[in-house]
User: Which sequence fits this backbone?
């Protein structure tokens, strides 16, 4: 069983695309990811620990609670897939890639050509840089079966 953590943008269904392709091909992959419900992720700190008047402290509480999940998932996985979308800058995804790199995890990055320059350091730490989810699926299939 290959354990894969899906990091990155939360505004598209890219995770489901990869998961569905792997399920259709019956690949032995176990997926984990951050909380992808934006409101839950942003508000978990104040919902659990109490409200904050200052947004800095609201965000700080949520980020710390989310980091517990993220650290555990990255530490437990074999491969980290990091998707950088077009619409928003995913600072958290870059941080996840750096953390995974420090732990010597295999990293697969997905982004378009327009992000090649700003993500050159992240790409340098990756074992593969893909343009789309189909390429990632093919990498996972090759890892598990040795088949193209």
Assistant:
């Amino acid at each position: 069983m290959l354990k894969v953590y899906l990091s990155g943008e939360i505004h598209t269904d890219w995770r489901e695309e990869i998961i569905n392709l792997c399920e259709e091909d019956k690949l032995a992959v176990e997926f984990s990811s951050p909380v992808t419900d934006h409101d839950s992720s942003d508000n978990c700190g104040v919902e659990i620990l109490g409200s904050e008047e200052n947004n800095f402290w609201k965000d700080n509480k949520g980020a710390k609670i989310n980091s517990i999940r993220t650290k555990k998932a990255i530490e437990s996985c074999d491969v980290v897939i990091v998707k950088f979308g077009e619409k928003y800058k995913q600072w958290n995804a870059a941080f996840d890639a750096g953390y995974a790199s420090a732990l010597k995890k295999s990293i697969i990055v997905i982004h378009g050509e327009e992000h090649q320059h700003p993500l050159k350091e992240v790409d340098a730490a990756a074992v593969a840089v893909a343009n789309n989810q189909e390429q990632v699926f093919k990498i996972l299939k090759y890892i598990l079966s040795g088949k193209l």
Q: What stands out?
A: The radius of gyration is 16 Å. The longest strand covers residues 2-8. The first helix runs from residue 14 to 24. The chain has six helices and five strands.
